[in-house]
Design brief:
mainly alpha; 2 domains; about 0% strand
């Protein structure tokens, strides 16, 4: 399998996963806004806590950080290669 083929497969997975994250993030924002509205009206509303969800959030944030660091490393390696040639 060529690199180009691998990159195409990765792009498809990233697109699917991106839409999944967008869907869940939108739902979470809607529920949070609903909780604010209920609280404003003086009604109690308990938001559920999930260790699994907290872990998922941590993994997402870590992935975002690693992606940014990877971009920096790629640029650094390109710069080093350019300077050496």
């Amino acid at each position: 399998m060529s690199v180009k083929s691998n990159q195409k497969n990765i792009s498809i997975d990233l697109e699917t996963n991106s839409f999944t994250i967008i869907t869940y993030a939108g739902k979470a924002k809607s529920l949070a806004m609903q909780a604010i509205s209920i609280a404003k009206e003086g009604q109690g509303y308990q938001l559920p806590f999930s260790v699994l969800f907290m872990h998922a959030e941590d993994q997402l944030n870590s992935s975002q950080m690693i992606i940014e660091i990877s971009k920096e490393f790629i640029n650094l390696y390109k710069f080093i290669e350019f300077k050496n040639n």
